[in-house]
Amino acid sequence: MADNVIVIGSGPAGLTAAIYLARAGLSPFVYEGFQSGGMPGGQLMTTGAVENFPGFPKGVDGQLLMSDMKEQAARFGARMSMEDVSGVDLSARPFKVTSMSGETKQCRSLIVATGATARRLPLESERRLWTKGISACAVCDGALPIFRNKPLAVIGGGDSAIEEAMHLTQFASKVYIIHRRDELRAGAIMRKRASEHPKIEILWNKVVEEFVGDSVLVSLRLKDTKSAQMSELKVSGAFEAIGHVPNTSFLAGQLQTSDTGYIVTKPGSTAASVDGVFAAGDVQDSKYRQAVTAAGSGCMAALDAERWLVRQGEQL
Known about the structure:
Blueprint: E1 3-8, H1 12-23, E2 29-31, E3 49-50, E4 60-61, H2 62-75, E5 79-81, E6 85-89, E7 95-99, E8 104-112, E9 116-118, H3 124-129, E10 134-135, H4 138-141, E11 151-155, H5 159-168, E12 174-178, H6 188-196, E13 200-203, E14 206-212, E15 219-224, E16 230-234, E17 237-240, E18 244-246, E19 277-279, H7 291-312
Parallel strand pairs: 1-2, 1-8, 2-5, 8-19, 10-17, 11-12, 11-17, 12-13
Antiparallel strand pairs: 3-4, 6-7, 7-8, 9-18, 14-15, 15-16
Helix pairs in contact: 1-2, 1-7, 5-6
């Protein structure tokens, strides 16, 4: 027997969708994920204090927030499995979803909320100091007390890196942009803003060789890409802005995606290119990438799926 809705993903988008679907009596089944694309609960599971999610004036621990969302969804009847999805068949309805254990479930509609994984530097020191001065989201973490009035670094050279650096200028004493080349990849307007901002300094032809610090980040060891000369830069925070990878490999190209791999949804809707499939959160959002916007789009996807099922006459 086919489920009304299967939700793939358990970050803010997936769990918000599950809450709305469960309260509507649709008994959604949620594949939380396990390892592929990150841990169950999404990127907030690696975030300490979340200070910009509405309703928490003193901030909230990322893991606690996701645990509460999961409990809320389960309270209303959402069923969950902590498994990765290995593949889907969207060629006919009911759709088929196969987990890593080999089990295949059928569903009338599908919500993809698998998020995107931030690219990170493959350094042991980066893993050791992650969340201890190293982040992949300046908008999320830049205003934290540990970064205020301190020198900070942004690693990258595209539009996102410049946007992160500009945001950090509100809090930092100085912002260094570390770029491996001698010209930024960002657009002309963003390059102009970065070069003219009094708090921003661009360090050309540099790559991070090591993040230095015992319990928190204190400096970066940099290597010049032309001369191989080493140098040390004292900073209290480093923000990696080297791109995100949408977690869509299990779809095997069955949904339309952008040039950068994000699921394309119809304007004013969360509907994907296959009728009955919806996408929410960072897997379809390359612009905002915030927990609150992901949760909002999860709500939208749930409402879109419910209304779609009613139109199809398939709602139980």
